[in-house]
Amino acid sequence: MRENWRSKLSVLAGASALALSAVTATPALADDAPVSPQEVQMPADVKIVEGGPTDPGAAAPFPADQEDQAGPVESVDLAGPVETPVPGGQAEAVGAAKAVPSSSTCLGSTAAYGTSGCFQHNGDIVWAGDTKKDGMSAAVGVYTDYGRAEEVCVNKLGVDTWATCNKDYREGGDVRLRVLRYDGDTGKFYQPETWSGWIPVDGKY
Asked: Residue 107 in contact with residue 187, Cβ under 8 Å?
């Protein structure tokens, strides 16, 4: 009788250990799964502007005390805005900057995987920084609150570079930035993407 009880107890303990190992192993497998970029549908008539090279010597657009601030950011798909996490922090953008505007003049600093962007109100300049060597380019879309067609500033200069697109926006209006990745071979855009808040063109909040 006692041996039978011990046998049942042993089987029960073994089953519990097996169940526990299965539960603890599953998250590790999920964490190790590769994440492929998700295509973003853009209007067929969206204007793509190739950014020009910049002169070295300016300060980074992301202050050093913000380099590790990462977290939920606004992302968009066909169904509308949703909250999704962005891998990594803004440290990559700081380390990669070779020629970028001063943080005091570049507003709406926004970063997602491989791309950083901001808006320089004195001159209406859009900055696009590429921070990942993945065969794709940094892309910064610009939207206005007065109906101007969307344009995208693309940095094709390669990783660890910044490109600028010099535009002319209505002084009394606001712009909003959308940073994401761009594949020049296919002409397609990819997430992760991030949106800035609305930025006054004249720089006066």
From this structure: no
